[in-house]
Amino acid sequence: MIDLETPPVPTLSDFRLSTRQEHLVQEIAGRRQSRRRGGLALGGGVLVAGAVTSVMLVLVGPDTANAFAAWTPSPTAPAPGQVSSAEAACEAGVTAPPSDKTPPGLPGGATQVSLVDTRGPFTLVLFGASTSTTLLCVSGPSINSSAQDNAQMREIGSPQPALPEAGQIAVNRLLAESAGDGQAYTIAEGLIGSDVTAATLGLSDGSDVVATTGNGLFLAWWPGSAVVTSATLTTPTGVTTQPISIRALGTGGSGNSVKRGVGTGQ
Amino acid sequence: MSGFSETTDGDLLAMAGNEPEAFGELFKRHSRSVYAFCARRTGNLDLAEDLTSVVFLEAFRRRRKLRLSNTSALPWLIGIANNVVRNADRSLRRYRSALHRIPVPANNASSEEDTISRLETQEALARSLQAISALTQGEKEVVLLVLWSELTYSDAAMALDIPVGTVRSRLASARAKFKRSAAVNSTSVAQ
User: Which 3 state secondary structure label does DSSP give A251?
Assistant: First the structure.
């Protein structure tokens, strides 16, 4: 024992480092996916609970302590008549719009349904996605302050941007809304590549929300004001995670709707 | 990955749950230091490479317990590495299936020169480990962290979860043993 020196360790080559780095990222992504599969299984149980809770929410009305107690992070199968009543409520809202919430000149009742997202008793309907006038309507207990008006309609209409490439997602809009009791919720809407079969949005608060996908579109919403930071996409060739950047936060929109900005996949 | 170049280690860890690539960036930043630590601690370069992967898999698992020293996650990672190497067999067993999924690099073939160089390095590392074998476990760890990995006293204290004063006293004790040993050796040579 004569000194406390040690020889230099040869540096790990860039190639070996990147191989290990790639492996690590894949292992972590694989673990997230496994957890998500567990979460989806749980979603089936939430559906049953949601049906019971929705009755309670309707009975309790808009003053309930948590308007979104029956919300689920994964879409649920709609209850019988849920979608048709939501569409009817939305169309009624268009036909007789509250003057402070809906812009004039909407094509009342004539807009085609593009995609429907149901989570427990809540229904989010996207109308006319391929037209110049796109509408979003969310309905459910306690969505509006009036018990007779449990739907909120928004015109978000501008022509849709170009379709994203295969395996990609484009978040067109994040809409910050608030329910009748003032509780915030956020809606995300956009497009998916033709081969994307499922999309899970990672939010800035660390939670995940499984989107409803179909017709090259996706829809999702969640209680609170978190924004989308990533999307995990399933395609026939595997699962990839795509970072999402929200480029600008603006204030605009109508009524209590605020357009949070347009997010694009990287 | 370059999108994370301005992101702090703490933010990378916070994002890792949703964005695995953020954890990949953390690996890119600190894996060489962790690898060097594992190599010095084991004297085996191939094993050190596998242990480095294990350290980061373990770090991901424990990321919610992160304690940052300044803005660098390195002391925390070295602390994990210290435990991983101490229980190397158990750690490798735990992540065996993950390690089996690491692709063998296509250009894995080493030249004869590289192979000889690696063997010489390993022999030199083994001599270093032999040199500190007379120290207590605590003294060895402090030598590895402060003298060989060049961590500050406070970072070493954080990595080992001991007070800074203990780091200092263990290092002083290790140095004293070295001095005595050097004196004995020089006397032996003189005789």
Answer: coil
Nearest residue on chain A to B38, judged by CA atoms? A9
Distances (CA, A) of A142 to A65, A84, A253, B122: 10, 19, 21, 69
| Residues of chain B contacting residue A210, judged by C-beta atoms under 8 Å apart | none
Q: How far is CA A40 from CA A76, A237, B85, B107, in A?
A: 10, 21, 37, 41
3-state SS assignment for residue A110:
coil
Which residue in the block uniquely carries the two structure tokens 């032996």?
Answer: B188
| pLDDT per residue as tens digits for the range A249-258 | 333 333 333 3
Task: Quickly count: other Cβ atoms within 10 Å of residue A13's Cβ.
Answer: 11
A243 with B125: Cβ contact below 8 A:
no
Which value does ipTM take for this structure? 0.81
Contact A57, A49 (CB under 8 A): no
Rounded to two decimals, the pTM is: 0.49
CB A5 within 8 A of CB B128: yes
Unique residue bearing structure tokens 């999309």: A199
B181 touches chain A (CB under 8 A): yes
- Which tens digit of pLDDT belongs to each residue from A67-113? 787 888 889 988 888 888 877 777 666 554 444 444 444 444 446 78
